[in-house]
Predict the structure.
Amino acid sequence: MLLTLTIALIVSSWFFIFGLLLAAWAIIMGVIWPLVKVAKKGVKMARAQNRVRRAQVRLFLFLAVIIGLMAFVPLPFFARGEGRIVPLPHAEILAATAGLLGSPEIADGALVTAGSTVMRLTNPSQSARREALALNVVFLEDALTRSGLTVAERQRIERESEVARASLVNAETLEDALSIRAPLDGRLSWTAGQPPTPGRFAFRGDGFGYVINPDALQVVAAIPAAYSGRVGENSSIELRLPNETTIILPFARERVVDVGQQVPPELLRSAGGPVPEQPDNPGMALDSRWIIWAAPDRDLSQWAGAHVEARVDLGRASAFTQIQFHLRRLFLRVTRF
């Protein structure tokens, strides 16, 4: 029985319908059919002993108790999913301009302070442009000091000087952006635990890692979207950390991501998350999910990047109500895919 269900689980990850049929067959043959055989054997024994009416009464009372328990006794109802502890976007180390990567100045795991340089870029053409603009500004300022200029020439030089100074300020900003700095205090974490390869060309907006700071972490969890409408206000999410510690955090925000919509990149399966993405549309969800964000109330910096089990309390519901919910959810998934 266990082996059959394990095979059904593996098959369902590849072919959902066939896995579902195999699981149904395993449950029928392993659970329902043995009970039917026991009931038939009991009926035969009751007939042989002339106790059919007594057996019928006992069977009726047994079924009535089972149905009553399943229909009227409320049971805990939970939605389960998977989440990750990730840094906030403003803790990411990004390239503010394009250039060739130099050698990293700080190793992975080292402590950094806000504004400290972690790596430098080189862009010869950009540096040459800044020097040319600086020379042009000096030339125009010197031209304004000459005597004998007409009013029209002076106005022209002043306009050119104003444009040149504005261009120089922009060029100096880009030149300063060649130094990649830590956005805040904390522990440096390069992407994949390795610093970028020196000499590689980096574009503006490329990320190289994060600064792990206890105040700059968040929990992002993905749960099947069918559960999203069953929570009220002031809901909370229960998280099980890798050390088996359980914490409960209130929702910071939530939203439902439908098929084809963008998912937080840390939750995508290509990044080790639980949400599959469309093969021909990277970054977009292949299945609808309920995305929940929560702000930690304690220092979770040692678990930054870790996967956690997520659970949301949906209140209490009878066994019949829960079975009906799961069957409806299963039917919608089968008809949708």
